[in-house]
Amino acid sequence: MALLPPTSLVFSVRRHEPELVPPSKPTPCEYKPLSDIDDQEGHRFQIRCLHFYRCNPSMQGKDPARVIREALAATLVFYYPIAGRLREGPNRKLMVDCTGEGVLFVEADADVTLEEFGDALYPPFSCYEELLCEVPGCNDVLNCPLLQIQVTRLKCGGFIFAHRYNHTMSDAVGQIQFMSAMGEIARGALAPSITPVWERHILNARDSPLITCVHDEYDTPTMASGTIIPTDNLVHRSFFFGPTQISTLRRFVPHNLQCSTFDLLTACLWKCRTKALELGSNDDVRFICIVNARFKFSPPLPLGFYGNALGYPAALTTAGNLSQNPLEYAIELVKQAKTKVTEEYMKSTADFLVIRGRPNVNTVRSFIVSDLTRAGFREVDFGWGKAEFGGPASCWELISYCIPSKNKEGEEGVVVPVCLPAPAMERFVKELDQMLVKEKDIAAAGSFCTSKRRHFIESKI
């Protein structure tokens, strides 16, 4: 069974007054435009993440809040735009006003131990509002702190590092680069080992914008219209996939089909989710994967680039095709979507966004997945060692994350949080359970995976 039990831990947190932490030395006062990939509509929101750290005897007598606050101030000297504020110019173009005002910082104490959170740490964390408080007047995308941090000390000597960052400034890779730099300085370094690089112009639209690729991922007048998913009675659950679950799912894959764990998991989840939503057979559905495009360029983007370098390629089919065909069909669609991201695709994306007025990602009957297994959330080390868990605090109706994690037996695997209306979640769990039954129970299902050529059910969208 992949379903993880929901967490319901209740505890109290005593917070100090929020403060602004500016760079520890003077920094340039200037305006720095964001790229056309950065400031698209789909990035204009805040992402909340949590990192859990155990007590480390070698750090006895050191206060994690003080260590992290001082490291933050020193790191902001190198990443000084993060201490500024976003402004919006003509045509909704975003730019950073490098004011040096600082990052919002909160110090706190909780009457709970890390052990009380249980054997396994995974989202959704129902307590995250205690661990990352909402400060009035500081929650908008524009004219507000671009980063908020709360360090909550635990009774056991461990602590929780929570942060909320403005997605227009960085993607996960860029944000972890900044956090890792903080960790290096917290451990005694005088400067980050990777020098931050701005260079946002690389991901701007061309002087003569030209859309050269198909962008099914964005809203256009010809796109499907309708509700996203019902938002009443939403349920958040997480699912763990270790070696046993992955091996079971691979029995559905023909031997001649090469696919990654991400391809396999996301295809499985997309298919189960679509069936659980009970859509019409001819309703179009999308899978959108979030791809790091740093190495899709020639040469690759500069080492140290911490802006958004994300592509959102989409696979498009119908609910009937996805539900009725074997898992291989969904895997092929996922793989094809990933291969769309090239240097030309990213240039076409920037041109598309500027020509079309920065539309949002199409959310109607879409399933969006971000692979964070290599992002390095758990590797951020402030001197207490690697985090027990690091990653998003929750998920949304449309977006799930693949997060590296351990189960209660200490087995490494991937946790995927999913959000659905309660009735759909029940159906989703049943669909997933049917795919994760033992080999003897799926012998018949496995018979369709032996042929080298596949014949899929197709209907027009």
Q: How are the elements arranged and paired?
A:
Elements: E1 13-15, E2 19-21, E3 31-33, E4 46-53, H1 64-78, E5 85-88, E6 94-97, E7 103-110, H2 128-131, E8 147-153, E9 159-166, H3 172-186, E10 234-241, H4 243-250, H5 261-276, E11 284-292, E12 310-311, E13 314-318, H6 319-324, H7 327-339, H8 343-355, E14 366-371, E15 389-392, E16 399-406, E17 412-421, H9 422-435, H10 443-446
Parallel strand pairs: 7-8, 11-14, 14-16
Antiparallel strand pairs: 1-7, 2-7, 3-6, 4-9, 4-15, 5-6, 8-9, 10-17, 11-12, 11-13, 16-17
Helix pairs in contact: 1-3, 5-7, 5-9
What amount of the residues lies in strands? 15-25%
The biggest sheet amounts to: 7 strands, mixed
Task: Give average pLDDT, whole number.
Answer: 90
Total helical elements: 10
- DSSP strand count: 17
How far apart lie the N and C ends?
A: 34 Å
Q: What sort of overall outline do the alpha carbons produce when their principal axes are compared?
A: globular
Structural class, by secondary structure, is: alpha+beta
Radius of gyration: 23 Å
Q: Low-confidence segments, ≥5 residues, pLDDT <50?
A: 442-461
What is the N-to-C order of secondary-structure elements (H for helix, E for strand)?
A: EEEEHEEEHEEHEHHEEEHHHEEEEHH
* Helix amount: 10-25%
Report on the structure:
The chain has 461 residues and is of the alpha+beta class. It has helices spanning 64-78, 128-131, 172-186, 243-250, 261-276, 319-324, 327-339, 343-355, 422-435, 443-446, and strands at 13-15, 19-21, 31-33, 46-53, 85-88, 94-97, 103-110, 147-153, 159-166, 234-241, 284-292, 310-311, 314-318, 366-371, 389-392, 399-406, 412-421. The strands form three sheets. Strands 1, 2, 4, 7, 8, 9 and 15 form a seven-stranded mixed beta sheet that branches. Strands 10, 11, 12, 13, 14, 16 and 17 form a seven-stranded mixed beta sheet that branches. A hairpin with a 5-residue loop joins strand 5 and strand 6. The relative contact order is 0.19.
